[in-house]
Amino acid sequence: MTEPTRSPRSVALIWAQAEGGVIGADGRLPWHLPEDLALFRTLTTGSTVVMGRRTWESLPERFRPLPGRRNVVLTTDPSWSADGASRAGSVEGALEHRGDLWVVGGGRVYAAFLPHADRIVVTRVDTRVDGDTCAPALGPEWQRVSREPAAGWATSVTGLRYAVSEYRRGTTAPAAAAAPATGRARQAR
Hints:
Layout lengths: L10 E7 L4 E3 L9 H11 L3 E5 H6 L11 E5 L10 E4 L2 H5 L5 E3 L3 H7 L5 E7 L7 E2 L7 E7 L5 E2 L5 E9 L11 E2 L2 E2 L3
């Protein structure tokens, strides 16, 4: 008798976004924020990270695979393979991996996993940049449960201002946590 597939304990999404929800430009982060990279490393180390093929390819070779994590690359190309990473051909295939999952990009991968997520960590970067990839809009089922700093901004060693918010899936969003509409879609704040 085969053992049924176990769902992961947690499916979390993590990203940094500029004004307007921009998370990428030409396959790269359009800013350098060491504090956000440190938070990313702290939260994801020891877990499984799931990313799209283009996100994998955007990582500098010296960081492929991301150390201290099980790397899963979501791609529909059945012939894709890379040292240090396993391939998932679908969201469902990625969800079969045991343990906590951190979805780390890109934009379409975030959108595909959003219905399965129970936690989102967003670093909002106080800057306006041009980009070609945006974070998915969060619906009213997402409640902001924390923000660091609670008001205002922290300042990076690079001079950029930023704040980190955590969202949890709930039944309704309190008015204070709801973000105003930006363009066509409401972005995480």
